[in-house]
Design a protein that fits this description.
Layout (H helix, E strand, L loop, with lengths): L2 H14 L3 E2 L16 E11 L10 E15 L5 H19 L11 E11 L3 E15 L2
Parallel strand pairs: 1-2
Antiparallel strand pairs: 2-3, 3-5, 4-5
Length: 139
């Protein structure tokens, strides 16, 4: 498959849940209008599956690391409710991403790895990390 296929599937789910794609490449340095309800999707790295038999000469499996960052607004008036909203969205998104049926006919595997919440003075950032195994077939 391709970067675009995986990114579009993740972005589609996030957009359905009320988030918009950020114009920034890093939410920690984003402009003030990027603080709330925005996301960044990154394919961070990939490596060949060393366990694949050498006899499979018509394809390779690329084991990729992906990350998703989502910003949630933070202020003294809504800090607790937005933190609760962050965790509810995290649970929903992880269940969607880790469900094999959602990726049928696209990539070989999408597997949830970890999540982390970081704080800045104006917003919370949820980061979810994924393992994606993509299959490339030689033509």
């Amino acid at each position: 498959m391709s970067f675009k296929t995986v990114k579009d599937l993740i972005a589609g789910n996030l957009k359905e849940n009320g988030f918009d794609e950020s114009n920034s490449t890093d939410l920690k340095n984003a402009s003030p209008n990027e603080y709330a309800n925005t996301f960044i999707i990154r394919a961070e790295s990939g490596e060949n599956n060393e366990d694949t038999s050498e006899t499979l000469s018509d394809r390779i499996y690329d084991i990729q690391k992906w990350s998703i960052q989502i910003a949630f607004a933070r202020s003294e008036h809504n800090e607790l409710s937005n933190l609760d909203r962050l965790h509810k969205n995290k649970d929903t998104l992880i269940a969607y991403l880790d469900k094999p049926a959602n990726w049928a006919n696209t990539v070989r595997l999408v597997k949830y790895i970890s999540w982390e919440v970081s704080e800045t003075p104006n917003y919370f950032i949820l980061e979810i990390r994924l393992k994606v195994i993509d299959q490339y077939i030689y033509s």
